[in-house]
């Protein structure tokens, strides 16, 4: 069979010609420089190879290319904004896996302010979905640091969480219906806008969190909410981890519906933000523990400032809060949120770090942070624990920064030792080794120990039933 060179690997010319006929000249990238941006993950943990990058512009085009590649036995790797923290959208080093970018499938098909739904294609960037909802007088609440790059298909495929999970839930809770191209090229249209639909297996939930291993999410019906008419944001220095949790409970007990986000940050992480991020000003300096409180209501007369000040006054008197800065403008609210959102970038600029995206019951978060920090310092002397994240839903990014004098490669070579040290504590506290980032390539070896037995067996049966040839994002999720 004749072949042509695309990227740095051969691909049958007959298949390439048929794909070109389906996708058009904009739909295939074959040059080495053109495919390069698709080969590495955001954290630069993996760098793969691919014969080409396919860029369908519609569900019909995607379905046809899946049929062609399935017939030829070509494995496919879906890619959205390529913001995976665990290598979930990166091809392997073998050079056979074809990257399928859904970036051109980026239309908001429909917004219904009465139904409070948006139908968006997989390539719609999360920030664009937020803006489209806002233009219709609504709110799409999913929010996290990578929202300017991550796509709807990607966040659903990984069941992304983010800053507002405590109020609105993960991506799964924001999804009503899906459109999916199955591994054989069939299109399942489940784009239903129904709150109640009790008609057998809820197939849509199979694909959320599956990381593209069961098929390609091409579009989704997303839940919208009334937009906030009153907001308050405060940056608080707190006594310790227990005081942070106590403050969360005070707000929750006073008015749970008002709490839009509640984020913990360590003094180490805030210090990295101050030194590594240009313009990284911090309103309260020198504390070991901080929290960001974000209150919001769709009522214009909700009295959130009164609520905020009353709770903070109680916490100050109790010694839980040491000091607090309350935003007086939208610019100040954005500046406070920037401290939290730039944590990953600050760590990246500081040097090598190992990410531990874990969750425990909310009540166990202080113990998680204390025990993990001690274990990590003992494991690698001079290393710097940087715990931060979504205290309100129990998801803490228990990250570790390399010692300043240590070789980054030598530090990263200890990644699994570091993850194991944290996960031993997480398991003891009844938690999960992956809260919102997914499994990808990085954590497949953990699945047997954590989800083995009946649970993993069922996952494998589902995979074998839908993708018997194993062509959908191979090497991800399942060990």
List keywords for this structure.
479 residues; alpha+beta; Uridine Diphospho-n-acetylenolpyruvylglucosamine Reductase, domain 2; Uridine Diphospho-n-acetylenolpyruvylglucosamine Reductase, domain 3; Alpha-Beta Plaits; eight-stranded antiparallel beta sheet; five-stranded antiparallel beta sheet; 17 helices; globular; FAD binding; catalytic activity; FAD-bd_oxidored_4_C
CATH class of the largest domain: Alpha Beta
**Approximately what portion of the residues adopt beta-strand conformation?**
15-25%
| CATH architecture annotation name of the largest domain | 2-Layer Sandwich
Shape: globular
Q: Which structural class fits the helix and strand makeup?
A: alpha+beta
The percentage helix is 25-40%
Low-confidence parts lasting 5 or more residues at pLDDT below 50? 1-9
The CATH topology of the largest domain corresponds to Uridine Diphospho-n-acetylenolpyruvylglucosamine Reductase, domain 3
Number of strands: 21
Radius of gyration: 23 Å
How many individual domains?
A: 4
Mean pLDDT: 95
Q: What's the total helix number? A: 17
Question: What is the terminal separation in angstroms?
Answer: 34 Å
| Main beta-sheet annotation | 8 strands, antiparallel
């Amino acid at each position: 069979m004749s072949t042509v060179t695309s990227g740095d690997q051969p691909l049958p010319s007959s298949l390439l010609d048929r794909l070109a006929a389906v996708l058009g000249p904009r739909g295939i990238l074959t040059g080495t420089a053109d495919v390069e941006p698709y080969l590495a993950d955001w954290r630069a943990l993996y760098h793969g190879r691919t014969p080409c990058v396919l860029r369908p512009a519609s569900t019909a085009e995607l379905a046809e290319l899946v049929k062609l590649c399935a017939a030829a036995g070509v494995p496919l790797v879906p890619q959205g904004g390529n913001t995976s923290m665990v290598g979930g959208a990166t091809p392997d080093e073998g050079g056979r896996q074809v990257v399928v970018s859904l970036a051109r499938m980026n239309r908001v098909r429909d917004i219904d302010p009465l139904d409070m739904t948006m139908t968006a294609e997989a390539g719609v960037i999360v920030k664009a979905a937020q803006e489209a909802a806002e233009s219709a007088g609504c709110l799409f609440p999913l929010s996290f640091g990578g929202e300017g790059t991550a796509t709807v298909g990607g966040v659903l495929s990984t069941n992304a969480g983010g800053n507002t999970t405590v109020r609105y839930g993960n991506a799964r809770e924001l999804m009503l219906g899906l459109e999916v191209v199955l591994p054989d090229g069939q299109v399942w249209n489940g784009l239903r806008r129904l709150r109640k639909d009790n008609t057998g297996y809820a197939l849509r939930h199979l694909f959320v969190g599956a990381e593209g291993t069961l098929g390609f999410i091409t579009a989704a019906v997303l839940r919208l909410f009334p937009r906030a008419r009153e907001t308050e944001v405060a940056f608080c220095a707190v006594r310790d981890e227990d005081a942070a949790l106590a403050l969360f409970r005070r707000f929750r007990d006073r008015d749970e519906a008002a709490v839009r986000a509640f984020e913990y940050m360590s003094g180490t992480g805030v210090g990295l933000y101050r030194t590594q991020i240009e313009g990284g000003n911090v309103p309260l300096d020198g504390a070991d523990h901080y929290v960001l409180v974000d209150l919001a209501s769709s009522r214009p007369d909700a009295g959130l400032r009164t609520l905020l000040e009353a709770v903070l006054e109680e916490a100050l008197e109790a010694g839980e809060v040491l000091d607090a800065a309350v935003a007086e403008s939208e610019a100040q609210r954005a500046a406070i949120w920037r401290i939290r959102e730039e944590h990953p970038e600050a760590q990246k600029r500081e040097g090598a770090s190992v990410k531990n995206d874990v969750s425990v019951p909310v009540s166990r978060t202080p113990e998680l942070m204390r025990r993990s920090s001690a274990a990590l310092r003992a494991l690698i002397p001079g290393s710097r624990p940087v715990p931060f994240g979504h205290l309100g839903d129990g998801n803490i990014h228990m990250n570790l920064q390399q010692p300043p004098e240590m070789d980054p490669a030598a530090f990263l070579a200890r990644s699994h030792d570091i993850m194991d040290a944290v996960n031993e504590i997480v398991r003891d506290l009844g938690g999960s080794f992956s809260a919102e980032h997914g499994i990808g390539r990085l954590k497949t070896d953990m699945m047997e120990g954590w989800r083995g037995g009946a649970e993993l067996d069922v996952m494998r049966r589902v995979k074998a039933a839908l993708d018997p040839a194993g062509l959908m994002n191979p090497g991800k999720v399942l060990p």
